[in-house]
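Bumping with the actual sequence this time:
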Amino acid sequence: MASRKAKTAADKRLEPIFTWFAKQRWEPLAFQQETWQSYLAGRSGLIQVPTGSGKTYAAIMGAIADMLAKPEPGLRLLYLTPLRALSRDIEQSIQRPIAEMGWNLRVESRTGDTSSAKKTRQLKNLPEILITTPESLALMLSYAGAKEFFKSLGGIILDEWHELLSSKRGTQTELCLSYLRSVRPTLQTWAISATLGNVEEAAQVAVGVNAEPVIIRTDLQRPTVIKSILPESVDTFPWAGHLGLHLFEALVNALDIQRSTLIFTNTRSQAERWYQAILFAMPDHADQIALHHSSINVKEREVIEAGVKAGTIKWVICTSSLDLGVDFQPVERVVQIGSAKKLARLLQRAGRSQHVPQGTSEIFFLPTNALELLEISAFRSGLAAGAIESRCPLAKPYDVLIQHLVTLACGEGFKPEEVFNAVKKTVSYATLTQAEFDWILEFVEQGGKSLSAYPRYKKVVSTDGIYKIADAQIARMHRMGIGTITSNQAIEVRYLNQSKIGNVEESFVSKLQPGDAFFFAGKQLEFFQIKDMVVYVKSAKKKSTITPTWGGGNLAISDSLSHHLRREIEQSRTNSTANVELNCLQPILSAQERISYLPSSNELLIECCKTREGQHLYVFPFEGRFVHEGLGFLWGYRFAHQHPATFTISVNDYGFEILAPKDYPFQTLFSQEFFSLNSLYEDIKAGLNLSELTGRKFRGIAQVAGLVFKGYPSSKKTSSQLQVSSSLLYEVFTKYEPDNLLLKQAENEVLSDQLEAHRLAKTLNRLSQLAISWQNTNRPSPFAFPLLVERLTSRMSNESLLDRIERMKQQWNSK
């Protein structure tokens, strides 16, 4: 919003909006006015503009103008956010013009943090504007009178659409929208995003297959300045690892405690460790430094966010909990510890600084190991080229549809033909067949072929063609399980006086003994006991560096970043004006070229060397660890098919290693057929223990589909109990119902999510067209060294990992 003389509204309905903007000494930007006019014209679409450019007011003000022009009681606008933490900030932003102008509108939030009393009151008297999450919206659909709740609904806003789009939460949102559109055919949908590569597809997913979306863009530019914190010498810098603590003093010296800064890490455990290190370095500023991640109690997070806005808290060590939406205008700079792995993630985090239109984002990049310097250089090239990753919708996940049908049955009930027609209008389920829908309907009604003898799996009953929930007990159990997030079981941590600290995973707590000290939520704690799935602790007198670990922190480089990574390697051979990261990395690149080879973008580097352990094959596609995992097992199978042997396979983001018996003839086994895409699925299935991987993936599917009950709030089931229950169901389906659609879904998710099968096939096709640069070396090259370290350290405890890596690096340097 520019601070110039206000213009007059072309549409009289927008006059109140222009009046408020004038009072702020703002002039509405062109893209904001275009959005408002499109909304008032009855259109739906997507707003794609940089972070901090005023997207919220662009999306909300057209709807508010419509409400003011045509007052009507009841819920008029839904604002859907992916994170409940964002709802507070969004509510304040929307409430500001309403309060200042005295408009007769109410805005409220309804998330998992909202009290039960407030939720009950809301259902009796809904506000005109309701901010909620996909899970809370689905829960509203499960109540009797759901149609009455939404009878006046005119629009829905999907905030941070890129975060939902390619996940089951996005699919859940699509299904909720399909129901709302059946209730309100004129419903308008507006998605908001700042970082999407496939804007047109994302817009179509938001509005449904039968609508033509409007796409709003802007020519506003928000430059991103990257400054690297480099080691004094790359020779003493670790070649593997992800914590980066060896540079904590350099980071502290590079920053200013008087400048508001967000310090991003990629995992919660890493954030805890960095918070400890920074407090150690700056004990006199402990009251100005805070820790923020999703496992810390929500009340404490709210205090931290308020402190950042007020300017009393200057540095926040955080994770993706502060990636999105929260408006921190006081933040002047951002730090990224370790590679962000995706261009979009880096852009999103950089946008947290100077959160105003056309502000310049400043981000400090701190590498955690030597080869991450190469990734920083690739980030520079990618951002300069305007590259950004695409987010694609999921293809008809059956478990989410099963949950949706039971949700509708809990509420008003549903007619199969109406739901099928509505669901087919979503992009995710556009290819759903009648046979698949009939199977799902039978599954929720009878439990399918295998579970028909068990009443708890007969969730719905048909009366006069309308399917409703079978009984109140099943409805209660279903409502407690609504949602698609299936992380490991979280256990609440409290002091002995019952005050809440946060939550950790059960796997961490199971290793604790009474009296053990650990560091969590920025506090030294002593384990006292666990009771009713609550961990009771007290403040610890002794110091500990042990921190909880959480699953889900294994990030891989994206397709876009890997493309630029390969180009950086190629250009490093000839570019005399390389950037500071490549200049710093030059000793390693020179060593790589001296010992082995630096591949160009149209070459595939394969190294082979022999040690006491056997014959090592190192392959460097630079496509990310998930693709490399699939390639490693695929190649292992195809090698063994020609020359039987037992292999050990290790992977990282740059390549993979196959360790075979001594003198294994790798080179003689390559052929055009070896790179063939024929029988790709069958070979991957044979090379992997697909049954085991599918069984693991099925656990999450079983939870989403409601086959496994997580327990009541006062008696949650443990992860082991959930695992046993889902494993038993998996065995039953595999043995007695092999055509079960949920088994098919689990197999597809292993291939698409875990191994990135589409990208794997694309990579294999690319590799078949590359010139192979075969290098016989006497020892592992710098590129191969991290793979060797990862395989060796996988047998060690976490406590000795960094020390062992450092020792191995020093031994390597001495050679």
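The tokens above came from a reply further down the thread. DSSP finds 30 helices and 27 strands in the chain.
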